[in-house]
Amino acid sequence: MDIDLIFKALANPTRRQILLWLKYPEQFLSEEQCGGFQRGVCAGNIEKLGKVSQSTMSNHLSVLQQAGLIQAEKHGQWSYFSRNEALIQQYIEFLESSL
Question: 8 — phi, psi (to 5°)?
């Protein structure tokens, strides 16, 4: 776990919003839009929620992925993103014990 990368990733409000969308996708998207949430949320749907360009959203997703907060799974030409709950829990425990 790279604490500095996680802090950097969480410093941006859009990236924090992405984590919220991935935590509760059913509150923001219909299952029809995503074909269910078993694989995660498709990058295109995250982009639509964020109302930013594809390149901007791609950068946000990349920063979150490099920090380990999300993981991507490819299915054909589509990338599906989900939260890395184990690392997020580890980060929360680190904060509780160190601050």
Answer: -60, -45
Task: Sort residue 2 into left (φ over 0), alpha (ψ -120 to 50) or beta.
Answer: beta
Domain boundaries, the chain: 3-98
Find the Cα–Cα–Cα–Cα dihedral 87, 43, 30, 85, rounded to 10°: 0
Q: Report how far residue 23's alpha carbon sits from residue 35's, in angstroms, rounded to the nearest whole number.
A: 17
Phi/psi at 42 (5° precision): -65, 140
Q: What is the CATH number of domain 3-98?
A: 1.10.10.10
pLDDT digits (tens, 9 = 90+) for 5-37: 999 999 999 999 999 999 988 887 776 766 666
